[in-house]
């Protein structure tokens, strides 16, 4: 999760619905949790090495570390933690397909498909939806679109049938709901990677996207189109 709280000028200037300050995603700590937090803050910090020891806090890594490689195998634990501490209720309904379209703060599509901060062409999303339908063996699915732009306009631009805009919530509830999809169609964004980490059974990525830089690539689960 991003360091809390953040103040970003870009989302305000661009008029994005989600200002991405992240200060309102978690409920307030209970007294017991506040005590544990304070104890951890005051305890001696050691880097991960050797068996756990009482009276100190074991630090696995600082900063971004190796990103989702460091969290591999712990998705259920992290998901449970986030669900329990979310300020808003999280829908646990399963989805057939979830699409994340990142546009607002990304540059226009370019030839270098490996560029992390460039938009994925809308035609690619249409092709990815067709692949998802074929994979699921259906002509119509229960799908939800997640985007930083006007969702109704993006759904119309993509010509999506059976897809709804993401339900009201915040960044945390959106990431958790991305993880409720049988197939996730992702953008070149760590937001999509959080959805994949939190439970998407299969994910479709743009060809050339260097997923291995951020997370372990799983054959049969990660599809590059």
Structure notes:
The chain is of the alpha/beta class and 225 residues long. The protein contains seven helices and eight strands; from the N terminus they run ααββαβαβαβαβαββ. The strands form two sheets. Strands 5-4-3-6-7-8 form a six-stranded parallel beta sheet, sandwiched between helices. Strand 4, helix 5 and strand 5 form a beta-alpha-beta unit. The longest helix is centred in the middle third of the chain and has 15 residues. The radius of gyration is 19 Å and the shape is globular. It starts with 8 loop residues before the first helix and ends with a strand. The mean pLDDT is 82.
Quote the average pLDDT: 82
Major sheet characteristics:
6 strands, parallel
Strand content: 15-25%
What is the number of strand segments? 8
Helix content: 25-40%
Global Rg:
19 Å
User: Overall 3D geometry?
Assistant: globular
User: Which strand order do you get reading across the main beta sheet?
Assistant: 5-4-3-6-7-8
Low-confidence stretches: none
| Class from secondary-structure proportions | alpha/beta
Encode the helix/strand succession as letters.
Answer: HHEEHEHEHEHEHEE
Tally of contiguous helical segments:
7
* Distance N to C terminus: 28 Å
């Amino acid at each position: 999760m991003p360091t809390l709280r953040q103040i970003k000028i870009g989302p305000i200037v661009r008029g994005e619905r989600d200002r991405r300050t992240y200060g309102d995603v978690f409920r307030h700590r209970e007294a017991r949790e506040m005590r544990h937090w304070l104890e951890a803050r005051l305890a001696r910090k050691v880097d991960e090495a050797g068996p756990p020891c009482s009276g100190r806090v074991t630090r696995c890594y600082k900063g971004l570390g190796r990103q989702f490689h460091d969290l591999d195998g712990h998705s259920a634990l992290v998901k449970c933690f986030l669900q329990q501490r979310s300020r808003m209720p999280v829908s646990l309904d399963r989805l057939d397909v979830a699409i994340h379209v990142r546009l607002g703060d990304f540059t226009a599509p370019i030839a270098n498909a490996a560029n992390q901060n460039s938009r994925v062409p809308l035609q690619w999303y249409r092709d990815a939806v067709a692949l998802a339908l074929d994979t699921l063996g259906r002509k119509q699915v229960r799908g939800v679109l997640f985007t930083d732009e006007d969702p109704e306009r993006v759904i119309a631009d993509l010509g999506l049938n059976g897809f709804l805009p993401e339900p009201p919530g915040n960044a945390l509830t959106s990431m958790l709901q991305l993880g409720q999809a049988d197939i996730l169609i992702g953008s070149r964004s760590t937001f999509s990677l959080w959805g994949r980490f939190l439970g998407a059974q299969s994910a479709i990525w743009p060809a050339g996207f260097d997923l291995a830089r951020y997370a372990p690539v799983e054959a049969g689960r990660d599809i590059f189109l």
